[in-house]
Fold this sequence. Notes:
The chain is α/β, with parallel strands linked by helices. It contains 11 helices and 10 strands.
Amino acid sequence: MDSQDNYTQARGKLFIVATPIGNLSDMSYRAVETLKKVDWIAAEDTRTSRRLLDHYDVDTPTFACHEHNEAHIAIKILERLNRGESGALISDAGTPLINDPGYRLVRQLRQAGCEVVPIPGACSPIVALCASGLATDQFTYMGFLARSGGTRKQQIQQIAVMSHSCVFLESPRRLLKTLKDLSTVIGSKELVVGRELTKLYEEFVSGTVTQVIEHFESQAPRGEIVVMVGAPLHVEEINDETILKTIQAMQDEHLSPSSLAKTVAQHLHVKRSHVYQLMMAAKS
């Protein structure tokens, strides 16, 4: 097997370094080694990162790189890489760019011909999903849902009709509201909430959405939260009467006939052509 020491050729590269999401022991040897050998570290919040860097005796100079200064810092980083310096990008926790700023920076550097090297590690959506018991062969990650409005309503509806697992993040203050919004549309789909992952009070709560709501109504949620909605466990026999009732219920969404047929078909896991035929027959 051919082995290459990245650090002997690390000049002029930007390393995207994943950090722990809670347990400091989850930092990889390669990540620590990289942070010690680069010339500088661009951190989402230098104060937050200092605890981690001090824990591993990393004294590499740091500067802030976050969503409010990303455009300016991208120019600064490009200049440094062009001078032959190497650097690392870290976020407050987990894998940078996953629900964090940074993709504009990486895109600009790659377009300029700079080499960007990922150093893998913890990522809360993946950590949660692998221990959830839900299907992992296909899933959708949605970040944080919109707090209100039409976009949020659309996202909730998308989750309802997905035929595979869905993963998103939520704050403890909004968790119960989100679960109650989901309860009106996801039916018997299994739901899992992962909380305080890799930390002392790590918890997974699973069951129907009603059962999960009851749990968090009795025990107020705290900490970082990942919500996962499973795929339908089985496809029930759907008759034409059920399809017509669903069409009628969804007509308030002001969708075109074609879009309405598609939405109903996804929701009930039936053929769109059959839904459309029933719609046309009902109209005539």
